[in-house]
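Worked example 2:
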Amino acid sequence: MSDSAPSAEARSLFVTTHWSVVLAAKDKSSPDSAAALEALCRAYWYPLYAFVRRQGHPPCDAQDLTQEFFARLLAKDYLSAAAREKGRFRTFLRVALRRFLANEWDRARRLKRGGGHAALSLDTAMAEDRYQAEPGGGLTPDRLYERRWAMTLLEQTLGRLRAEHTAAGKAAEFERLKAVLMAERGAIAYGPLAAALGLSEGAARVAAHRLRSRFRELFRAAVADTVSGPGDVESELRYLVGILAA
């Protein structure tokens, strides 16, 4: 699971993202366009910040570059080149960032924070704290970006699952059960879990199985919304699981 829990704001922004939001963001005639694009920025900025840092940019430059990249997304028509049929959304964002860094970073790094385009209010101090806790130099910028992307999808899925249980009045049950999500099946201690839930061991097993099944369903749906079509879902799932397991 993640090394830090997503904020309530991040969870709320992550309810509907990826290609569905890209399509809304591209439609400038829609009153939801600006809000959709800002939701995308807030959802994805940390994986991209980590990519910029691992490219060798110091924290202040990486903060300015990430802010400016997303300011450009907000102010310019960067998304005009985005189309679901062209492939994975994580690849689109990374390619767009690479182009931005190659063509614009000299000028962009000289912009003072708050200058140029209107910047999003991003918690860049938190980002650097998170970056300092990342694995060492063994991960390339691309590999770190994709690991953080996969972790973000996991956080999204956990947030949606928590929201479902909260809406059903089962928030406390979820908090006791969530540890089973990443546990190996044979490693789950059902006796203590049943006692904590006030259930029989058999009922605790059923509750854990349902939670794990729903988690897999939501994670699959999150992944499906980042690829070009149903035929790409299985390969993307295998790739992301491999990234997380490495």
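The two ends are 13 Å apart (CA to CA). DSSP finds eleven helices and no strands in the chain.
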